[in-house]
Amino acid sequence: NTDSNSNIQDQVTKQAIEEAAGLIRKGGVVAFPTETVYGLGADARNTTAVEAVFAAKGRPSDNPLIVHIADRSQLTELIADVPSVALTLMDAYWPGPLTIVLPLLPNVLSSRVTAGLDTVGVRMPDHPIALALIAEANCPVAAPSANRSGRPSPTLASHVVEDLDGRIDGVLDGGPAGVGLESTVIRVFPNGDVQVLRPGGITIEQLSSVTGAKVISVGGALIEAQSAVSPDHHNDMGIHQSYADMDSSEPPRSPGVKYAHYAPHGQLTIVRGSSPQAVRDRIISMLGEYTLDGNVTGLLAFDEHLSGYPANSANYIISLGSLATPAEAAYKLYAALRFCDEKGVTFMLAEACSEEGLGEAVMNRLIKAAGGRVLDLS
Ligand code: TXA
Ligand code: MG
């Protein structure tokens, strides 16, 4: 019957988690599901293990990893002083898609995790498998998204296999990840100011509603401006600046923002404008031109507009869900980009959505995936 089936399933899962935790304890690297995307986990205290994470992803070594914990007691081993605003946010949103950058105690983690910074991004994921794995491994788990560097983050175990097969020690398959986009990364300053370094699963509205604190959003534009910094100026990003010297009026110092991200193989452009008809007409005509040029074409559009596109206007027309529910677009975006790659799509256009709520994170990732190519009609 179903009951004993689910018991067997539970045992299989428990065994897999124990096996994966054993691998992490021995210095291995294992991919696991979280409520945002799949992560690639390693013991954050073990330099060899952390280096293996960077190597498997092909990740630049100056881009620090997020450290995952299963229990608040693990926090005291990492951070000396947690500002009260940070505690309030943890109470409200942990476990959950919120990463908080705080000053790190010396000599508790491999310095590779933080890329030499004196701060660390910490989060407690809201996923039973992730929490059980971290608890069983009994260590802080460093885990970036489990994709090859520059590829869309994995929302399924099969995406991890696609990118990292043969390069890691295992994958815990927990089905589809939840939110579909990565966590919100924030800094909390000693004075209680909150700065968003990367929009994500927890919205600006959610951050300010519980803290009453000043929340500074960096916004897609500023992130894009930073990603245009030339590689010669890496060290001007203030990566080695001390946390104590920072204040919230300075530009964000999340090293990851300067790298190209989430890129599909084909060329993606976002078409945006106040008139949906004008956007649609332009999209149809551009797709037509690029098809004549021999491209395999793709279109990412919202449900409200889908019926306006003739079926033959692109080789692949993919829904991002309803404009009214950006959570759908968040959930579908990375899989849609990977689908286009699989189909050999060379030219893609995407509609834009409003940057309210989770829409801000969706547009942030979409603009990154497009390498900043946004065609503004209005
Ligand atoms: O949802 C998520 O956050 C997923 C899952 C697996 O937890 N993880 C994830 O990790 O997206 P990753 O490595 O792909 O992105 C981490 C981001 C990067 O942009 C990095 O630069 C930033 O967090 N970051 C990490 N530590 C930081 C620090 N000490 N200061 C500033 N930014 C930091
Ligand atoms: Mg990532």
What CATH calls the topology of the largest domain is DHBP synthase
Please identify the top-level CATH class of the largest domain. Alpha Beta
Which ligands appear in the coordinates?
threonylcarbamoyladenylate, magnesium ion
**Shape assignment:** globular
How is the biggest beta sheet arranged? 10 strands, mixed
In the CATH hierarchy, what is the architecture of the largest domain at level 2?
A: Alpha-Beta Complex
What is the strand tally? Answer: 15
**What number of domains?**
2
Helix content: 25-40%
Integer average pLDDT: 89
Radius of gyration: 21 Å
Oligomerization state of this entry?
A: single chain
Computed structural class: alpha/beta
Function: Required for the formation of a threonylcarbamoyl group on adenosine at position 37 (t(6)A37) in tRNAs that read codons beginning with adenine.
InterPro entries: DHBP_synth_RibB-like_a/b_dom (IPR017945), Sua5-like_dom (IPR006070), Sua5/YwlC_C (IPR038385), Sua5_C (IPR005145), T(6)A37_SUA5 (IPR010923), TC-AMP_synthase_SUA5 (IPR050156)
Organism: Paenibacillus crassostreae
Catalytic activity: L-threonine + hydrogencarbonate + ATP = L-threonylcarbamoyladenylate + diphosphate + H2O
